[in-house]
Amino acid sequence: MGFEGINQNIEKRELPPKSVAIFDFDGTIADSRDTVGRIINELADEYGYEKLNEKEVLKYTSKRAQDFLREDLKLSWLKIPGFATRLRSELNKRITELKPIVGMVEVVKELKSRNYKLGIVSSNSEDNVRQFLRNNNIDIFDFVSSGSSLLGKARNIKSVLNREGFEAKSVVYIGDEIRDRDAAEKAGIDVVVVSWGYNSKDSLEKEHKSIIIDSPNQLLDLLPSQNE
After folding, report:
1. Which residues contact 227 (CB under 8 A, 6 or more apart)?
2. In the chain, where are the structural domains located?
3. CATH for the stretch 20-31+99-222
4. Which end of the chain is more exposed for a tag (fewer CB within 10 A), N or C?
5. Alpha-carbon distance 176 to 21, whole Å?
6. Are 66 and 149 in contact (CB under 8 A)?
7. Per residue in 135-148, pLDDT tens?
């Protein structure tokens, strides 16, 4: 397929053999970061915080989502669940506007050809995720699991492992946020974090030495063909 041997300089590129790749959706597959930034400002009057300039909005790339809501938007703990639901609702309305991360379509199709089981665990609704996948000709995932991130993504991942009968050691989770990394570790599975999503590379490197990749193609070095 022409993908072999690319991006050989991944730091800490060792990953035990896997047969299942579970992806986060927003920020990892779908390029939604700028859209979320716009929605945050659109909701400012409704939730009583000041609109942020471009630099201030990007603060949410440097920390955990709840820390951003508390420290930068000054939302109380009582308001955070409603705000998260409202933001998600607005993002759902724009699902047809979202595009895949550049290169992700080709990489997902290649992983499928390499016989990996592919899944998505997201706080977005399954209907929205499936619509996005169909719109972009990548409705090839074996499962999509939707659940509230406020209840804990680790619990969602564990539920998928139990339902699908996957051994934890056979699974890798690919996400873009500090909370994705934390959730995968709590669920007892390996994780690869991407630098193009909601959290910046600096913030991902700050607290833990994860495998971090800078382009979708680097996944293909970490997940070699299972056909051989």
Report:
1. 114, 115
2. 20-31+99-222, 33-96
3. 3.40.50.1000
4. C
5. 14
6. no
7. 999 999 999 998 75
Q: In angstroms, rounded to a whole number, what is the distance separating the alpha carbons of residues 98 and 31?
A: 6
Cβ atoms of 225 and 114 within 8 Å: the answer is yes
Alpha-helical segments (H) within 94-192: 104-113, 126-135, 153-164, 178-187
What angle (nearest 5°) sits at the alpha carbon of residue 42, between those of residues 99 and 97?
15
From residue 207, give the alpha-carbon distance in Å to each of 35, 37, 192. Answer: 27, 24, 14
| DSSP line for 57-76 | HGGGGSS-HHHHHHHTS---
Q: Which uninterrupted H or E stretch holds 218?
A: helix 218-222
> How much is the pTM?
0.84
